[in-house]
Amino acid sequence: MTMKLSILLGAAGVVGAVLLSGAVATMAQPAALSDTAQFDAQGRLIPPTDYRDWVFLSSGIDMSYSEGAAVAPADTHTFDNVFAPRAAYAAFKRDGKWPNGTVLILENRGGVSKGSINKRGAFQSGLPTGMEAHVKDEARFKGGWGFFGGLASGKPAPMIPYAATCYACHQQHAAADTTFVQFYPILLPVATERGTLSAAYLAEIKPEPATPAPHP
Amino acid sequence: MTMKLSILLGAAGVVGAVLLSGAVATMAQPAALSDTAQFDAQGRLIPPTDYRDWVFLSSGIDMSYSEGAAVAPADTHTFDNVFAPRAAYAAFKRDGKWPNGTVLILENRGGVSKGSINKRGAFQSGLPTGMEAHVKDEARFKGGWGFFGGLASGKPAPMIPYAATCYACHQQHAAADTTFVQFYPILLPVATERGTLSAAYLAEIKPEPATPAPHP
Fold first, then answer.
1. DSSP assignment, residue A16?
2. What are the residues facing B112 on neighbouring strands?
3. How many CA atoms lie less than 13 Å away from B21 in the CB half-sphere?
4. Taking Cα atoms as reference points, which of B158, B121, B154, B133 lies closest to residue B12?
5. Cβ of B123: how many Cβ atoms within 10 Å?
6. Residue B131 is inside which H or E element, if any?
7. Closest-CA residue to A179 (of A70, A105, A73)
8. What is the DSSP letter of B113?
9. A120:B64 CB<8 A
10. Could you give the CA distance from residue B79 to residue B125 in angstroms, rounded to a whole number?
11. How confident is the model over B111-150, as pLDDT tens digits?
12. Which terminal CB of chain A, N or C, has fewer other CB atoms within 10 Å?
């Protein structure tokens, strides 16, 4: 996987549906069903085809965790849109964490500034330029979550190896249940209220200790 | 209404649910129901409370139709997220136009660049900073559509007067059915295929005629 992919995966965690993990492999079908993480016989994730009907968590533009990342040419942007299955979203609103089997989808679309009568800012245009998934399955994945990339092809994709930076980054920085809820303004208040914010995130947002007054 | 509002309404048309228009007023309830344009006895639109569960059409950032618009301070951005009721979205995918009664919701959220581990670009943060609606009701509205602003308050809002620039702008520039489908990449191919692109939009995207070769 490329650095760009790990950034995207880090930038917007991705999760899924409500399956009993033991039944996943035997339930795999060529066509993905709504709200259900589907794997083929080789354990590859089958890209869901109806994720645009799911619940929209949020979008960002040109997000990067690296200060020195290359800047794209002017007027070239990448939006990321994140979607959760309806049942998984309802469970998160109730519990402040994702049910086992959840699949979150991160979709990228190009952003353009000039187009039709628009003069400034950016709007999304064209086909998806990338798609990744973050899947919760505590029996299947070490740490409970697996990442999958390259799904815009529509073809099943193998799990991204655990050595990829996305795993460590989500463990170290994600606000709730290994997902970047700090970037989803409709879910951050839920996790706050349910008390499911991670210790790492709470430490990150802790105000700096006041500088002690110098001796008089 | 302010210029900013008309820009936002122009930037992302907004529409709603599947009601018989004659029945709208009598069906009005204090609490808005899913997928249903609800009006109070004074004809004010009751803001839907569950639009975040609807279908996400697209998002943009800092969009403006004015070349000379004031630029926001660095690191201050406004995202717009547009949502359609599930039944209206299904009808558009079938017909390339919106059913009578459709309500589209445009939600604004602030965007920040630095936050958590993000260093570049922008992500959405905080509560909605604005909410507007675009409602199709051929019996109720001249031209078939009405705009409503100031809905983030959660209180019913009167129709924006027809003299507002949003009405003329949508009539003159919207790609399909008076809505800015050119900014919704999941719907533009539908309108193209169904043959519902407006004459004005088709003229706008028509290639410039080739310059005739000079006489030899």
1. B
2. B123
3. 16
4. B133
5. 28
6. strand B120-136
7. A105
8. S
9. yes
10. 10
11. 998 888 888 899 999 999 999 999 999 999 999 999 999 9
12. C
Distance from CA of A214 to the nearest CA of B (A): 31
Task: Look up residue B50 and give its amino acid.
Answer: D
Contact A120 B183 (CB under 8 A): no
Structure tokens at A37: 């993480």
Q: Which residues of B159-169 are buried (b: 16+ CB within 10 A; e: fewer)?
A: bbeeebbbbeb
Q: How confident is the model at residue B8, as a pLDDT?
A: 36
Residues in chain B: 216
**Interface residue of A49, A117, A127 to substitute, partner B, most B CBs within 10 Å:** A117
Give Dmax (Cα) for chain A. Answer: 75
Mind listing the domains of chain B with CATH numbers? 3-63+73-201 (3.50.70.20)
The whole-angstrom separation of Cα B13 and Cα B216 is 50
pTM of the model: 0.82
Tell which residue, A91, A166, A178, has the closest CA to residue A132: A166
Judged by CB atoms closer than 8 Å, whether chains meet at A56 and B83 is answered as yes
Virtual torsion, Cα A47, A52, A55, A58, nearest 10 deg? 100
Contacts of A69 in chain B (CB under 8 A): 119-120
Which two tokens mark A19? 């399956």
| Pairing assessment for the beta strands B55-64 and B103-112 based on DSSP bridges | unpaired
